Amino acid sequence: MNKVRITAIRQTVYPDLMAQFENPIEHTCDVKEGQQWISVDGKCPEGMCPAAWYSMKEFVESLAQGEGNFYDGWMKNPMSAMISCNDGFRPFSFYIEAIDD
């Protein structure tokens, strides 16, 4: 199986949606831009946000098994994907890629 590198690329925040729909929250996302994790055997890396993992799990598992080319040429690197977490108020985009390590 391949290892898969997961890199936090960018977070988008929608204050207007938060003000309109979200109850006040003391603690939200701990992910930082540029942060990386390595998935071994398609498993969730230690310290990965559970909600983010849920959003990318199937892609990471596929890449770990040597599968790729999602959606017939969606990504320039066919052994990668750009996936966002499921937080509708402050989603983070993650670049996931199979690596040879």
What do you see in this structure?
With 101 residues, the protein is of the alpha+beta class. The protein has one domain (3-99). It has helices at residues 15-21, 50-64; strands at residues 3-11, 36-39, 80-84, 92-99. It has a four-stranded antiparallel beta sheet with strand order 2-1-4-3, covered by helices on one side. It is elongated and about 45 Å long. The protein starts with a strand and ends with a strand. The mean pLDDT is 95.
Short description:
Helices cover 22% and strands 26% of the residues. It is of the alpha+beta class and 101 residues long.
Question: Span from first to last CA?
Answer: 11 Å
The description of the largest β-sheet is:
4 strands, antiparallel
Strand content: 25-35%
| Tally of individual helices | 2
Shape summary: elongated
| Number of structurally distinct domains | 1
Indicate the percent of residues in helices. 10-25%
Radius of gyration: 14 Å
* Weakly predicted, low-confidence segments: none
Output the strand order for the largest sheet. Answer: 2-1-4-3
**Number of DSSP-assigned strands:** 4
What string gives the helices and strands in order?
Answer: EHEHEE
What's the rounded overall pLDDT mean? 95
- Structural class by secondary-structure content: alpha+beta
